[in-house]
Amino acid sequence: MITPWVFEFFHALHDPAEREDPALVQQQFRWHLDLWADDEARGFEGIFFSEHHFGPAYSPSPNLLIAALAGRTRTLRLGVLGTVAAHATPWRVVEEFAMLDHLTGGRLEMGVVSGIPPELIQVGIGREEAAARHAEALDVLLDALRHRVVSHDGECFRFDQLRLTPIFCQQSPAIWTAAISPASAARAAGRGLKMCSGFASAKGLVPVYDAYREAARAAGQPDGPDRLALRRQIAVVESGDRVGEARQIVRHGFEVLAQASREAEKVLDSGAARIDEEELISGTPEQVAEQIIRQCRTVGAGHFLAGFNIYEPELMRRTRDLFGYEVIPLLRKADIS
């Protein structure tokens, strides 16, 4: 089985003039809250929100989106992939996650990432500092899941006998992170984290997933498909005569995002030229499911995170409906062994 999730970027309004109209910005929030609530009926396992700053996304605090959506859903798991450790303190990461775990009734999926360098550099945070903060945040979070009182002596943070509250709702909640290199995948596995990857071709990502499995086994950690996720961009159309349209939709969506990111001097600068074709999955429901299943089998991932870079509201709803009602049943029946 392949477990299907939404990977939500939460696009800002693209017209610069509209971004200055509070009523239109509020409408964007309300429309998306309705869209996300309907993802429960579509059959998605859950939604992962991503944290971004200073650019084309309304997502500087994914935790707030999770809190707003918690009361509008019952079974949908709600997560962040991930909280950028460089922008936070470890104790706040832990305590906010614990609060969200209760607000969602134990449906929280926690994720911590080191952050996107071009976003971090705008506030004077370099790669080494971001990596150190990321590592220490994970250390504290893992410790807090085992102990009620936590001490830490690190390069960035030092404290003694902190009682982090509240306790978590879930007994053994999972922690996710993102990795794009074998080294970062091995570090994630050694800590017992779940891992998501993307951007490169499935074949190109095999060394990343293999490094995770090898390091997990060496550390005595679980290494099955349920620990691993693949993320891709999706466009779905109803019939085969519209396959070309689907390809244009998914490529246009990525190019618009890349252009907005270039304007904000973000990591996707010139990304449209670098993106691997397998990152963009399009076609009929059967074709989309076949591509997802093939790529998940190649890397051994039991989770699939679908991104929808679509900016026209009705097209977004229709695409999610097609994915939910026609693609997801095929993924849940798939054998990736």
Characterise this structure.
This protein is of the alpha/beta class and 337 residues long. Helix content is 48%, strand content 18%. The chain is built from 12 helices and 12 strands. The strands form 2 sheets. Strands 1-2-3-5-8-9-10-12 form an 8-stranded parallel beta barrel, surrounded by 9 helices. It is globular and about 65 Å long. The relative contact order is 0.14.
Q: What is the compact description of this entry?
A:
With 337 residues, the protein is of the alpha/beta class. The protein has helices at 16-19, 22-42, 62-70, 90-103, 117-121, 127-146, 182-191, 202-219, 243-263, 271-274, 285-299, 313-332; strands spanning 3-8, 46-49, 77-80, 83-84, 108-113, 149-153, 158-163, 175-178, 194-197, 228-236, 280-283, 303-307.
CATH superfamily: Luciferase-like domain
Order of helices and strands: EHHEHEEHEHHEEEHEHEHHEHEH
**Which bin fits the share of residues in helices?**
40-55%
> What is the alpha-carbon Rg in Å?
19 Å
